[in-house]
Amino acid sequence: MFERKFDLEEKYHMLIDLFVSSLFLIYSFIVNAGIRISGLYMDDLYMWSTYGEESFINYVFPFGSTRFRPVYWFIAWVELGIIRNNITWIVVFNIIFAAALAVCIYIYAKKLSGSRIVAILLAVVFLSSRFSYYNISQLLGFMEALCLAFLLGILYLLYTYISKEGMENNLYIAVILYLLISFTHERYMVLLPLFIYAIFIKKGKAVNYIYPVAACGFIQLIRFIFIGTISPAGTSHTKVADTFNIKDAVKNAISHVLYMIGINDGPEHLNGVPWADTALIIKYSVGFSILVLITIFSLYIYKLIKNIKKKHSFRDSISISLFYLIAIVLCIMSSSVTIRVELRWVYGPFVCALLLLAHVYGEIRRLKLINANNILDMDFNNYMPLALVILWCVSILPMDLYAHGKYNKIYIYQYQSRYNSLADVSFGKYKDEIFDKDIYIIGNYYKMEQSTADAFFKVFDKNKKAEGLRVHLIDSYRDIGQIGQHMIVLKEEIANNAFSDVTDMLRNVKCEIIKGYYRDGWMDQEAEIYVMADKDGNINLELMYPAELVEGQQLRLVVDDKEEYFMDITENISYFNIKKEPFAITKLKFNYNFYLPDAQEQRGEDKFSMIVNIID
Predict the structure, then answer these.
(1) Residue 221 has pLDDT above 80, yes or no
(2) Is 297 exposed, middle or buried (0-12, 13-18, 19+ CB in 10 A)?
């Protein structure tokens, strides 16, 4: 079998590419530092919780759902099988995949531009982009990233099909990727015209038009069978058929363009920092990047006009430029038909735009203004376009890096941060001990549903059951009695969009120990505590003496330094009730005339006397 041998120069360039790829991986971790997933919520929690509870067929090919994404659901099934309850791996996996996409963009852009420097810069811009927030920080972010991978594959295959002879197989492979991307996210069904354009420009055989059209028809048929409609679902539980209107679609398309050139055209909860609130120096930087971008494309158009007589060169350059422009337009159209624009939807057209810029740069260098032997023209072609691309990258990066610091304002991050906090103060603190506890969550501002609370903690159990754990959603700490050892009490911290562990604090509020009493119930001969009465004003004491009783054993109990009670201990288990105002804090002093003679330990100055439980 023939085995290709690489010459020394090829090996040298491969080593450089490998080194650059490793730098992308390092940079991907650096630029996404601070992003983490400790707990799951909403769609991510649903994806995780249904894994293993439904059969493989029902999970990947569900009937009656509003969406049909079997390619992603299959990959998610595999991913979750690997991750299981190690959900912190999700971000790591997403970051690594983002670096892999950057490598693909680098290789593709290097081919288009003929410049390794330009390719590196565009890959860095891709990794730095504020549009990546969802791809990195969510379990479902891999779905968006996977679409980008398929999109890059389709663009590359169609580009080579157009620009080279004998590449018809690439068209067929691209059609397969079209099926895969459409069954990953229905938004990309809109790419059909890109195939028609590629075949038209290539002057391909008439039969070639059938393949993408047939693929699109097959997609619609399968969608209709499984979800009962071919109309794509909109965002936030809306339907495109119900909410679409041309005016909003045009407005959304304009927003896409503005986002792509660095202007956040939308509210804070969708982009983290609206343009009006953006720092002035960042606005200047974005403004400068737009001027540089205009200069680059103006130079390209100028060179095209100067070379218009070279029909073949002119036609090839324009056709490829239109190819990427059509891809941008189609991607924008696909996510402009719903009720709003989210940053993650701009990532697809932005990737197409980066490739268009790589193509434009390569064409500027290829097209000559004057005789190529003129040294001035060669210097212009080598340095001026490169300087412009460097300027654009340097001036657009501040906006993206600045926006990374504002992610916490985006609604998805607010939810993620909140549930990360819930994970931190529960499983992060108590580990597997939580599976034997009653967890009480105080507050109703976050509107957490019981089903969400129950599913949330199952994520941390290797068996996905958390059978010994019970979650109670309550409005106030007054809704529970004394805080026992089997209880964890958490509280919504609205000001910080977080949860806090108030178990110890409330345990002390309910029963503050002054001396001689221990949380497991043991009490010394002399003890003093403050106890909160329940909602009916009752303080119920259970007194247990785990040994043989002796005549004359007595407890002297002083309530609030006023009321004095004497209780003869004649039974191993006895009960005593104190009546106070509801939720009143009451001081109790205990004094026993006996102690437990066979106690195995002594914790304070006095010996143990009894076990005292404050019961509800």
Answers:
(1) yes
(2) middle
